[in-house]
Amino acid sequence: MQHRSFGLAALTTEMVKSGDRILDLGPLSSGTTQAFLGLNCQCHIEDLVEYLADNQHSDDPLQALEDHLLPKPANLKFDVILCWDLLNFLDLDVIQHLIRLLQPHLKQGTILHTMRYTGRNQPNKPRRFRLQEDFCFEYVDDPSYPQVASKGHSTVTLLKCMDRFSLFNSLMKREGMDQNVTEHFLEYDSTTSRNQVRSGGASDVSAYFRQVRDDEQVAFAGIGKTLAALPTGATVLDCGRKNGRNIDALKKKVGSLYVEDLHASLAWRKKMHGEGSGFSESMFSFDPGTKLDGVFLWDLLNFCSPQQIEALGELLAGRMNPGGQLHFLVYKANQQPERPAMYEVLEDERVAVTGIADGRSDRSLGSTADLMRQLPGYRLFSHHLARLPSGDSVQEFVLQLKG
């Protein structure tokens, strides 16, 4: 079985610089070390597989971990830590102790990459990863690796025991990835909003593995008009899906880009608080003082009630600069896909539209006049018609915040 690691590809092609210091907690045999050495990085190997093999029945696993780790110079600070799948097989107290032992060698911005197993059938020992090409790894069942049951740690549980690390990106279910693996990037002492997109993030390498087909691309006239109307160094919010799409092209066209999957947040609130739940300030995780120049809602409003649209318009108005642009799409037919599609702005300002659901539901939005009444703080800036790859016709709106 194979797994294509978008995370490791992002590290080696976009994020790691010459001279960076890498701590690899896996064995030397993975082949990735050679890629980092080729970038003139300093690589340090700890091999926690060996620790697991020697100490899985230890009376004092924390002391055994201290004894296993190699002594390091006091001034050594790591830029990147590679955990592979090993955190799945360590108890939480061991993980917490590991972070404490490494803390003298961490600095603000240290990146930790790890792979977390999901699903029911989790491996009963760490996997040996053998690098093939294009950061595709073959799983090797190594008989020398110890039999240790996966602990099934959730992302939240992991973060609680990893003092001062915060999650800034997750990768899952992309083409070539093992569907039961989620890759996480954590950052030590991060000062950046966790939903702000940074250059050199893992989305940068999506195009490295996947070419957008011609029949997936749509020329939305309003996209060019929206981008042209933004000020230099604009701050923009994209309300589409967080994971599994390439947002680097959009990031390069604006100053600061934030991503908030509002449809997922709304679905979660419905699950927790009932069908009548709406949008709230808590859905925005960036600084309340951050003022937005543009917002891309994509097809979100098609899945909202009139009351939710009105509430969202007010929330965004409080976060936007006067004259800020609000872009969204509205389905024209009486039937629409049952969930939002995925939208990726490309370098030429065309948009790749994928993930359009086959299932259909009744259109919930009213007329254009009804929609404008639900967004009284905005004026119409631009209006166009377009057709999605599925054949669905949509209206494209660009509104401008009054004032």
Automatic annotation (TrEMBL):
Gene3D superfamilies: Vaccinia Virus protein VP39. InterPro entries: SAM-dependent_MTases_sf. This is Uncharacterized protein.
